[in-house]
Amino acid sequence: MIDAADPERAERIAQVNEVLESVGAQSLPQIAVYNKIDRTGEAPRAETDADGRVDRIWLSAHSGQGIDLLLAALHAQLGTDLHHCVLRLPPAEGRARARLFAAGAVLRQRPLADGGIELEVSLRRYDLERICREAGLEVPEAIAPCADPGAFLQSQGCASVGGST
What is the average pLDDT value for the chain, to the nearest integer? Predict the structure, then answer.
């Protein structure tokens, strides 16, 4: 996230890139999000790299202009890896529930009559599998990938997870 109105934004970008390089993360895919275009007079837009992938988005979080461009770019880069499902966790799985909340994956929760909890989640398949594996839970078999960018982080298919005891 870059403050498009910051006169020293080039220096700040260089500082972030130095940190990314120092931790070996310079080659990870990035989308530079230039925020506050409402202060600069820039138009909302998406810019692409030589391979045609969106690498810069110009938007205003304040006015909402360009947010649709960001959501579409995120879907293009992550959409096929994002999965949406319903997990039914037994009462003893508070740690798995906490991890899902910490990952920002929980869209809704509902207590169950048996003391468990039903969570509607959306997250990367790898992360879902890791959290389930670490908690000793079965990974849902019918995980649906996310739908089109208009329904970002949503899908129609859901699955259940129970304890592996």
Answer: 81
Residues 55 and 93 in one domain: no
Residue 65 CA to residue 165 CA, distance in Å, equals 50
What pLDDT score does 56 carry? 96
Count of alpha carbons within 13 Å of 77, Cβ hemisphere only?
A: 16
| 18 sits in which H/E element | helix 9-22
Residue with tokens 């839970």: 137
Q: Which domain, by its residues, includes 27?
A: 2-65
112 within some domain: yes
Side-chain-side CA neighbours of residue 4 (13 Å): 21
Which tens digit of pLDDT belongs to each residue from 38-73? 999 999 999 998 888 899 999 999 999 998 898 788
Please report whether residue 74 resides in a domain. Answer: no
Percent of the residues in the chain that have a pLDDT greater than 70, as a whole number: 83
